[in-house]
Amino acid sequence: MPIYPTPEENSNGYTSAASVLPxxxxxxxxxxAGQNPEPQEEQPSVWGAAFRxxxxxxxxxxxxxxxxxxxxxxPYTDKNELHGYEQWGSAFADSRSxxxxxxxxxxxxxxxxxxRVLSDAGGEGVLASIAAGVVDPVTVASMFIPxxxxxxxxxxxxQVAIGAAGTALSEVGLNNQQITRTWGESASHVAAGxxxxxxxxxxxxxxxxxxxxxxxREVADALDNVRITSPVDAAAESLPNGGSVGxxxxxxxxxxxxxxxxxxxxKVARKAxxxxxxxxxxxxxxxxxxxxxxxxxxxxxxTLEGNLRGIETPVAAETRVRGWRREEAAxxxxxxxxxxxxxxxxxxxxxxxxxxxxxxxxxxxDVHSNPVVQEAAQAMRQVVNKVKVAQQKLGLLPGDDExxxxxxxxxxxxxxxxxxxxxxRDQFRKMLVDWWSRGEKTMSREEAEITADATINKIVGAKIxxxxxNVFTVKSAGSTKGRTLSVPDNLMKDYLESDANYVLQRHxxxxxxxxxxxxxxGTKTLExxxxxIQDEYDALMRAKPAEQSSLAKARxxxxxxxxxxxxxxxxxxxxxxxxxxxxxxxxxxxxSANFVTKLGGMTVSSIPDLARGVMVNGFxxxxxxxxxxxxxxxxxxxxxxxxxxxxxxxETILHSRARAMGDLVDxxxxxxxxxxxMERVTDVFGKLTLMGHFDDMNKSVNGLITSDGILSxxxxxxxxxxxxxxxxxxxxxxxxxxxxxxxxxxWHIGNFEKxxxxxxxxxxxxxxxxxxxxxxxxxxxxxxxxxxxxxLGKTVFQFxxxxxxxxxxxxxxxxxxxxxxxxxxxxxxIGLGSLTYALKQAANGKEVDWSPQKxxxxxxxxxxxxxxxxxxxxxxxxxxxxxVGLGAILxxxxxxxxxxxxxxxxxLGPTFGLLDTITDVTAGVLNGDAGDRVLHxxxxxxxxxxxxxxxxxxxxxxxxxx
Length: 962
Hints:
This protein is an all-alpha fold. 61% of the residues lie in helices and 1% in strands.
């Protein structure tokens, strides 16, 4: 075989493969001349440090040293011998040679280095320390110690004792091994061990072995296979066409059917909640009518005994009212888009002035000299007509002829500038009198003066804009019959709100409540339902004469709570007789000031909300949902568009959840320019917090999962029934999906607007909306104490709405279901709460306490899982100067959320804290004492001063932080 030479490069420019391979390097190949690289320095091991600090095994295998004694040696003779080690001076008492002293010093240095490594490692250090403690031999052994038998309390108490004893034994051993470990630290660890044992034992009391096994398996499967395949449409195939003929209805449900499901733990938790919120009281009522009315009225997250048997929870009027937010969002988006086009065409009006021009056009037959303004008015006419027709069908609004009779060229809801009318009462009164006596000549001047006074009193005393619809329906002097008087809009133009956003948003919210109440109960007053409750209690008292006293009290409580929920939905509960009084308006203004000066970090504080999806939908579904979001899956984009039509994920536009958690209730009228300006500031501030984007992301992912679970048939019948879908309705929904829906990337997209049965589409939309509101906790009318709706209560209770809402919708609902995902989701939520604490501390330039007991307490506090219980604890700690409360017991101090608050602000709410701060600043300025504290307080009064993306920069120059 001939051998040919291989050139380095062929004439065609091709280089052979053999020529581009690297030259061999080995023992027989000389290395190029140069300097050998420095050996890589070994980095300290976080996990090694964690095990040396928290696991007995690490010390057991540490080799012991033998030293020769030196006669007459005393480590304390030479003061320089222990310089820098005085804190651990007692550790050298048995040293008998300089070598042994040096060895003890080295051990102290090594232990301090381990502590430094764990502290610098942050979250990894905490995780490693927990893991090392879990596999400590004493901890492992304690797992096999049987607890007490009997009731849940006995079992939980025994586990607390076992946890405390096991931690104590481990701490004794670690104290003997480590020089730097103090008995104070050990005492804190023992307390934390007891607390954690109690937490997990409480959960364990509600978990069966099967559920605990399912939890482990579910997490493992989800981690191993994040790309889980879509559920098979098995439920739809198993149902007969049309569902069961005699499907049980809520009207046929018994008292037992409407009793919340769950074991002893959930019952105790629910009883605790009943002392606070009306919905938890009503669901425990002895009256069947009270329970049914409450369920039809207020959105809730209860799993009922009837749900287990296929009886659906009715769709609450509150949920349907939330659905009207899509019309509200349409108003905001339409105006914004129109103004953008107007500016592009060279327009010079501000956005606020542009909205007023749109409102004026809507009063004038949707006609305007500017084509863009006219186009916007015509586009919003569709929304106004939808609301108007819904009201007119139910008799809640006069017909078109009567609306024209009161002086409207085209219908645009009248919202009066109450403050201007109060300040210019004489001028407004003269205008009315002149028109009725001279213009229309419908009455004498004397009669017109009397009628004008009555009309003005109606306007000033109206609690919501809906009351304005009938202010001109009056009884003239000497007449027994009312009549409608005409006053043209253009005559009162200066006394009417014209901002299209302001007027229509409030009109939609308040009209929606009246419409849905009337649809659900026949009248917006619930007159029949209240009478049925009264009659039922009368029958109960006749049947149980020995319980008349308790039943009478329960009756009064039920009627009070039902009427309160009704009025909260409409927006009038707790409203004073004079809503335009100075003190009422001042309170609302100061609450808005609190919102823009104190909630800049609300988005960071909401990080634990991400765990709610895990608690409700499981780790696998959430991982899959966020995967669709991150990859911008076509399925996610399609579902997102459909959800907006369901009123899910409109927070970026409306900021309704942020406003609810900030306890900002929209007033019926803006009285002064200052108040109108503050409303605009709160709107801009809400956008700057980015809370709307965060909420929309979270709601969209969970809405995608909920829609998919309903349409695919993956959700169990119990969950569907809780969402208002019985067996028959589930079959009808899936039939509509098969006809009009589609499957994209394994996700079921309904396309509900194409469904032939729009009643079925409505039930489907309401189910998704309710589930998302419960998953991403969105406060509702039944979630706060009644006293919190009074003017003073709103002030004191501000920023505490989320605590009670989380307890009602998250904790109580989860304990009832008792699923594995609720419990491991709770652990995840506590972990995210700890993370939020660390992020907040770091952003404020404060030291993070990485001790386990501090992280657990902070996690519990910020997760909201214990609801108002942690609020009570925090107030007790603040009031006692840290001497009373969990922080005092565990030695962790006051919780970080309350650390910067004064006693007044902690006990009486942020408004009183704000007044205290203003007083302090004023006194400092007047006394010429503008020190660091005063300058820091001035900073806290500035809107947006603690926005999470700007606060770290301000902290650098804030003398109070530095």
